[in-house]
Request: fold
Amino acid sequence: MTDLTDKVAIVTGASRGIGRAIALLLAMQGAKVVCVARSADELQEVALKTDGLALPADVTNEEEVQHVVSETLRHFGRLDILVCNAGVGSFDVLEHFNVAEWDQIFDVNVKGTFLLCKAVVPHFKKQRYGHVVGIASDVSKRTFESGSVYGASKYAQDALLSALRKEVRSYGIKVSVIYPGLVDTYFNEAQPGGAEAQKTHLRPADVAQVVRYVLEAPPLVVIDELMIHPITQEY
Ligand code: NJP
Reply:
């Protein structure tokens, strides 16, 4: 088993939802967590709870992403884990989307993942160690009506991470991709905690447990992919 004590982990989208739950759980395992998202106040609250570092940043901005990585290394002197979780989505028939909405979804879900990996992987290669975890989606593997744009972005994010896994394996770097089904979060302007969603959706902590499981795998073991659904969800 890989001990997470004192491992340094960047978690994007840590201000709420799944990312917040991942940050809290990794901190409980003794990891030093760098919380990244745009909402500075929410991020500060998570950083206080995790005894970690809040670095407000937009994952679509290369300079801000580079700053997150250099500031992490300056502050902690090491970096072991990257969790690419920040993501956005909305759902409608294809012709109702405009180009700005397409760009926003692809910028956060695909370019954000690309920029974080681009900034972190050279460091991981130098130390010949590191673990990238991507929070993709079950719709990285299937399509559905009204999911064309979001689904395309999640297929692209998955392809990027799967190819990266092949590029970095010989350096001892792991890349794991998690494919959650419905999760009770603020995603797509939802309000979590409703009675119905509690019966039909995973909790953010369920996904966080999967991330922990993947990260704690023995050094020789890489869990490439892991899909998780609420038992009530038709898939
Ligand atoms: O959503 P939500 P989830 N730069 O809205 C951050 C995937 N997923 O936790 O910047 C930096 O509660 C945002 O922070 P802020 C989904 O695709 C979900 O459900 O402050 N951060 C917030 O912390 C996504 O990849 C479901 O607004 C940015 C976080 O992202 C991941 O799970 C199902 C940002 C979003 O929190 C987490 O989403 C599935 C930016 N430009 C996959 N833009 C589900 N919930 O059902 C957004 O299959 N964030």
Notes: Residues 8-228 form a domain with the Rossmann fold fold (CATH 3.40.50.720).
